[in-house]
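Researcher: Please translate sequence to structure tokens.
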Amino acid sequence: MEKLYNKSIEVLKSVQLENGGCLASPKGTRYPHIYTRDHAFCTMGFVSAGLFENAKKALEFVWDRQLDNGTFPQRYDTNGKDSSYKPLQVGEIGLMIAALDEYIKATNDLDFVKKYWENIEKGIDYIKNDISKSHGLVYTPNSIHEFPPYENGWEIWANAVSCAALQRVYEMGKLINKKKDNYNELAKNIKNGINNYMWNSRVNSFVKTIRLKESSSVVTDADASTIGLSEFRVIADNDDKMILTIKRLEKELWHPDLGGICRYPKHFGRNNGGWGPWPHFTLMVIRHFIRRGLREESDMYLNWVLSNTYDFFIPEHIATKDEFEDYVKDFTEAGILREDRLVMIENVKKHPKFKQGLAFVTIPLAWPHAEFIRTWNLYKERFY
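Model: Translation complete:
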């Protein structure tokens, strides 16, 4: 595990540019851009590893490039220019506040909070404007998994990070005498909305999305993004609802052949490089088990992550060769293979694992390496 930990630190250092931005994956791979979501988790990885200067540079990169409306682009190019192809995501604000909060707790750099306080409030204002008066939930036009049939509504990940952001900014404000009581109340309202409207007793789990536009619907499929409630401490790990939600993820999203937690159930028409497990969501589930003191489950999942690396590099996700070839055929015949997809396909097929029947998609991806750093440090803190 220590070898993977050290390699993960190397990966994070290698993808950080001079301007502080962290590429989602190295140049020459599928994601040579700074995606705000991935960048936030890389920042938290730096904090966990004690690399505070790297974390500070990463924070400055994004907070200095905040949009006028308070949110952040989906992604930046290597020069820090907006290169988004997706609409704004309210969850990005919460993630950057989470990264900032972890940095502050580790360093007590209150000058940083003071410097960016207006930016932080601007971000919170954006969240506040998207809160429903009737349900207390945050509306988002798209979701963490970017699948249109699940979008335009109250989505679980966006609500989890937004709830946490309001609570964390409330606590930060007290540190610099900028107390905002309404932030705390809004956080409580979102949490109440999640418990009152996003818990589904029929499936014994929190739901993915309550859709509001086009055809209104409730998306009750098991989805890895529900782990956000645990990840951002919105619902306690030992809460019965959280335990049942995690059990459902294990039951319905553990890959029957490859192991590991998939992002969502297998659906026709929802194939992005082959359906299969995603290490970074699997690592979030591990942290849930660690916080509950469940070492046996933690060990089993950690060993799965380690066994699905190559030269201690962690992929974005893993698929069977046949699943991956189905994806390539469908997208080729439909004529929708973008340049980044062609790069990904080429890299997957020339990887040694492909001859063994496995598609290691986008390796290394920075995000799961950040998650491993955070998970391994939490594991050692809890069990050693």
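Researcher: Any highlights?
Model: The chain has a mean pLDDT of 95.
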